[in-house]
Amino acid sequence: MTEPISPEPVREWKPEYTPAYVSNGIIGLRLCPIPPLGGVATVNGFVKMDEATGLEAYGRAPFPLAGDMRVNRTVVTQCPDRVVFREQRMDFASGELHTRFDFDGDGARVELSLITFCSRNRPTIAVQKATIRVDRDCELEITAGVSREGVNGYWAEPPMCPSHPPGPLDCLMLWKSAGDMGSLGLAYGTELLGTDQVYRRFNEGKDGPTSTSYVFHAEAGREYRLHHYASMVPDVWHSRPQHQAARLLTAAFVRGCEALRADNRAAWAELWRSRVQLVGAPERWQRMADAALFYLNSSAHPSSPASTHMFGLSFWPDYHYYRGHVMWDVETFCVPPLILIHPDAARALLRYRSSRLSGAVANAEARGYTGAQYPWESSPRHGHESAPVETTHSFNEEHVSMDVALAMARFVHATGDLEFAETCAWPVMAAVARWLDSRIERTPRGCEMRGVNGIAETKTTVNNSAFVNMSAVLALRETVSLGRDLGKRIVESWKALADALVLPIDPDTKVIRNHDGHDPAELKGETPEGAAALFPLEFDVDAETERRTLEFHLRSADKYVGSPMLSALLGVYAARLGDRQRAAELFEKGYAQFVIEPFAMTTEFSPVVYPDLPRPVPFTANLGGFLTSCLYGLTGLKLHAGDPAAWCKRPITMPQDWEGIRVDRIWTRGRPASLTAMHGTPRARIEEW
């Protein structure tokens, strides 16, 4: 296995750059180019009341790795003009962010190097290692702690800073979010290495930062190191989360900074054994593939209590980030790559849906249906519908239930996990089937789903959306099949419904249209929903229908490309028609143009097509869509209950200048295997180790 290609170091920070994102899927950090000058934190499962909508949303947390420094009489945060940025680089191989800057203090110059990471082995732990050197002797004060600046909420209890001699725990705290919707336990510990002649004090602030300061005489040429450990525990994990955070912090402190770094590097090395290698492709494409895999893995963890959202654990105050709600994008674009490369993380994301089944049942009952209808925007804590009331189209966005059911089925196909099938997949899939049974209308045409919204989100509804109806057919058939395998009682109408659902296939042209009466000139009519039924849904049709459908929707691709989600799939549609040049062009416009400097993060909308829109990052639906295109679309891999060696049946066509795709390790039925797809071969190969 070769190491991933990390972004080039940033040595000049430009105003248009977006701050770095460091995460392990439980803790999410965004850090300024000079970390002491600010940062943003979120924690998986920690929620608040959104001030703008009054809805449950993920909560911004106090920043756990806050710091400051005083050189004689000058302070970094008070004199930012004296700070000289030197370099910041993201190391994809280890998940570490490295930052260097200088500070021209009062009578001395300080060189400071920071290493920041969120531990994959200990998911509640974030660590920052600071290395400090001065060019002249001076009085140096280094401060590290937790900052609540810019965060709505309050300390529910006064911070507790033990009075015993320096040890693992500096302070533990209990934070309450806005609207009292959630609680978060925080604990931090620090240690200074390089001198024993130091004055150490706690700075306890009910409304301000809580921190620890080290004051000492710094000598020129000598190296000093400060290790700052933090633990963050949401109340979904513990009734007294601050005490649990303190316990976990203590264990991490005892393990030590360098051992934690080594453990974290080893965990990342294990993940990179499933690196998606674009054989023969220009290096820039391999860089983008590495970045996509890095940010997807950064945003998902086997311990995730509340799935992930469309930007992982990322937040910055310039955008709403969809309030951290869990949407269909996760199951459709993020789960498929994880099923193959990190199935334990995929299981955690799907477990969120099974554990919130009661919310989906309540949503269906409130609308007069039986079974389970998953919400369009699912709240992290309760799984309730949390779309803003002014988002009227959300009431008719119904395909999310089938997206969840299909993700469950495909996870079972890939892993062979019968316990998951019994306890998680079957209850969800059967409940979605019951909902479909009550939702589908019986008409003279057969069975219809009328008054829905498909992928193209508009304020008007349509009848018989291709993506909605074809996902319903697949979900019903998968449910019947799984039920029989598990020995469950099958409702006979489910198979009949799947066979009778009206599909918007034009009988004259054999094209899968987006919906009844679809016109590409209508509002968002260029959205390739009919093509999306073929991939990523993988709805089976005859070869002529597939060809004509792809040709039809690609005629509108130049108008659509630049929009979120399906743009990253357009290259697959061209490749399946054998047009290598068009495939390369559409991957360029549909994905490469979404990736922005300096850290190769993916935006929601293409900045080339939509230069005036915000650039929130990393948009997991787009990067997950690209990875899904690489792992499934271009390889022809289709998960089913049969032998994994038979999952790939399509002839392989790669984009221009790509020779193939190889993954040294994917997971099939709990066993490692390789995946190889080379241009011009009859099919891709899956070979067990």
TrEMBL record:
UniProt cross-references to InterPro entries, sorted A to Z = 6-hairpin_glycosidase_sf, 6hp_glycosidase-like_sf, GH65_N, Glyco_hydro_65_M
Q: Which GO terms describe its biological process?
A: carbohydrate metabolic process
Assigned keywords, A-Z? Hydrolase
* Superkingdom of the organism of origin: Bacteria
Report the residue ranges that make up the Glycoside hydrolase family 65 central catalytic domain in this protein: 322-518
Return the Gene3D superfamilies for the record.
1.50.10.10, Glycoside hydrolase, family 65, N-terminal domain (2.70.98.40)
The molecular function terms of the Gene Ontology recorded here are:
hydrolase activity, hydrolyzing O-glycosyl compounds
Instruction: State a single Pfam family of this protein.
Output: Glyco_hydro_65m
Q: Write down what this protein is called.
A: Trehalose and maltose hydrolase (Possible phosphorylase)
| Native source organism of the sequence | Micromonospora pattaloongensis
